[in-house]
Design brief:
mainly alpha
Length: 129
């Protein structure tokens, strides 16, 4: 189950940015662009489940409340997917610790930190026991 949609990512980063990041061949092929975005969402959603699966939480994966995704997970997913898309063209600068320097690095780190808070039971999503 996908925790976010293409529209969620576009709402955060802008449709033209997302399309540019996903167009690795610079050919404007809408099918390849859509497939790449779908792949980034699937990766981010799987990463979320994989991280939460190894926690002590007792809820069923994938997580939904009355058929909808908690807003916190939508945000985590779109940040992870956006970062995945934006780094697909390569990273050209790194900090002293070898971490990529990209405009979305902070979003990526915030998403991981939020996911850790959920996994450690320090953040409870609304409607999720």
């Amino acid at each position: 189950m996908a925790y976010c949609t293409k529209s969620d990512i576009e709402d955060r980063y802008g449709a033209s940015n997302v399309a540019d990041w996903a167009d690795l061949d610079d050919d404007g092929n809408s099918t390849k662009i859509t497939d790449r975005i779908t792949s980034a969402i699937a990766y981010a959603s799987t990463y979320i489940d994989d991280r939460l699966r190894r926690s002590d939480l007792n809820f069923k994966l994938p997580i939904s409340v009355s058929g909808s995704i908690p807003a916190t997970l939508v945000d985590v997913c779109r940040r992870l997917a956006g970062y995945t898309l934006s780094t697909g063209r390569g990273v050209f600068r790194y900090d002293q610790d070898g971490n990529p320097l990209t405009p979305l690095r902070a979003d990526y780190m915030d998403a991981l930190a939020t996911l850790e808070l959920i996994a450690q039971k320090k953040l409870q999503m609304e409607g999720v026991e």
